[in-house]
Specification:
signal, SurA-like protein, 8 helices, mainly alpha, disordered C terminus, globular, two-stranded antiparallel sheet, about 170 residues, 5 strands, single chain
Length: about 170
């Protein structure tokens, strides 16, 4: 009897480790269609945006990085895309227009520029509708510290209710 109890107690840490393993890995800002977007990638894009004199706030950066994955996947499926060279040329043009010397851009920044180039080449309304649909159907999970995501409204503010409770509840508890 004691051996069974000891075995059950020994299984608790194993079960806990398995359950925690299902959570997002540390440093994950979002997951889009199974593609992990890291905090480091967001920081690299924010740095590139700032160097290009573009809005570099967290919601803008995260929205741009998150949107790139499903839109590029759908675009490629539909026969559209953009080369790395086209993307770098767009970034260099943006840098020059903003009075900045072109520099080495991060890989996620180049991917965003590829998305912009690809989207600018699509004029067919049917294809545009398919891209919007692909974005709406994407499996997007945002780390709660960055906010919430809804396919129709986009990125929403972070909600810390799961830590401190909602407005009046938190005040009443304090």
């Amino acid at each position: 009897m004691r051996l069974r109890t000891a075995a059950r107690v020994a299984l608790v840490p194993v079960a806990l480790a398995l359950a925690l393993g299902a959570c997002a890995r540390p440093g994950t800002a979002a997951t889009v269609n199974g593609v992990r977007i890291t905090d480091a990638e967001l920081a690299a894009v924010a740095s590139d945006y700032a160097r290009l004199n573009l809005p570099a706030d967290a919601p803008t950066v995260l929205s741009d990085v998150v949107a790139t994955v499903p839109l590029m996947e759908a675009g490629e499926r539909l026969g559209f895309g953009a080369s790395r060279e086209q993307a770098v040329a767009l970034l260099d043009q943006t840098a020059t227009a903003n009075g900045v010397e072109p520099f080495e851009y991060s890989e996620p920044m180049i991917a965003i520029a590829q998305r912009v180039v690809m989207l600018s080449s699509i004029e067919d309304e049917q294809t545009q509708a398919e891209l919007v649909s692909a974005f709406g159907e994407a499996d997007i999970t945002i780390n709660p510290r960055f906010g919430t995501f809804d396919a129709t409204t986009g990125l929403g503010p972070a909600s810390w209710e799961w830590i401190i409770g909602s407005g009046s509840d938190a005040l009443a508890a304090g």
